[in-house]
Amino acid sequence: MHEFEYFAPKDLKEALDLLSSGRGKYAAIAGGTDLLPAVRAGKAKPESLVDISRLKGLDHLRSGPEGLEIGPLVTHTKIALAPELNGPFKLLAEASLSIGGAQVRNRGTIGGNIAFGSPAGDTIPALLALDAVLTLQSKKGKREVKIVDFFTGPGQTVMKSDEIIVNIEIARASKAAASSFIKFGRRNAMAISLVSAGAYVELSDGHFKELRVALGSVAPMVVRASSCEEALRGKEADPRLIEEASKKVVDDISPISDIRASAEYRGLLAQVLLKRSINQAVAALARA
Amino acid sequence: MKEKEISFKLNGADVAVSVLPNESLLKVLRRKLGFTGTKEGCGKGDCGACTVILDGDAVDSCLVLAMQVDGREVMTIEGLGTRENLHPLQHNFIHLGAIQCGFCTPGQLMSAKAFLDKNPRPTRDEIKVAISGNLCRCTGYVKIIDAIEVTAEGKLAAS
Does residue B44 belong to the interface with chain A, where contact is any CB pair within 8 Å? Predict the structure, then answer.
């Protein structure tokens, strides 16, 4: 197996100093559920691992007047169960619950899911639909990056090798907001998504005041279904209009064929899941 | 690579062992500590055969670096019960046909134990979700779910 050194820094400062001293050859590890398989498959070859999993101050999940703040070390188990995510941001809890199985969810973190940057990363469509803002920190300081600007390709992000995510912020929603996340896999658990869809809607007088839908596994990165969003913004939240708008999804995605599904199937599934997630979010609002 | 001594609680007892940075908890349990009850099925977190309980949570031990358990508490299948003193989960797995080849069994039991400790009165659907990270190629899962359900009801299957 690939050899590496291991550091267990006692605080964030020491961790960031280590990552900086690694000059791109050190990698941060938390749950390791994506990183360790990648190292064992020869896809990642860090010289050293910097264990951030026990650093204090990075596992917060707090709701405030400004919105929600989530630390990178919060595990998928905790996100799936968080009462703070019971309202308009529910799709994030649904997304985390869809990941792996209990064992993976107990170790895997939201920060890791984002940083690994897979186009199939399940929390990513939820965070895109919520317009999350990430705070990255290095020895040199902090910076904020909107999640929509974070990814540059499959497994590629704007994060530098000496940075880690230290906060995920989701701005407070208006009252009349709801969300829904749907993932299709070849199994109900332990599955990489064939297609995933995360929808966030705000209604005003039965019309879409705001609509954000993100799709996973249908492009080199998770994408927003902008054409469909534009077709529906301001319009009535009517199933027929949603159906019509969903046909525009072909303009927003570029699915591939792989061992899990054909590009053609993914294209059809993307349209259906986009429709369903919007309809489910609208229905959730009607019930509220 | 720099070897380091770690110390942790294993099935209630203090252990100290020298490990390498790239050694998983799974490998250290099996090869350095002789606790071979935990199995390696895939080595990449897909099958759950290596499930152990770390600070109360079921985890895939192949995805935990040994160095990461320094100062923590680990429970393996060996800590669940003994031949003379079976845990109710083990009794029910045996007597309800939840074991065929037995390879997935330690992992299933660890997932079940960690789950019932947190959710002592689950629905059948909740049990299914709890073991969805444990693959079984033999049984078709029904009897495993039955055994966990019966245990949760506080019953012991007829021997």
Answer: yes
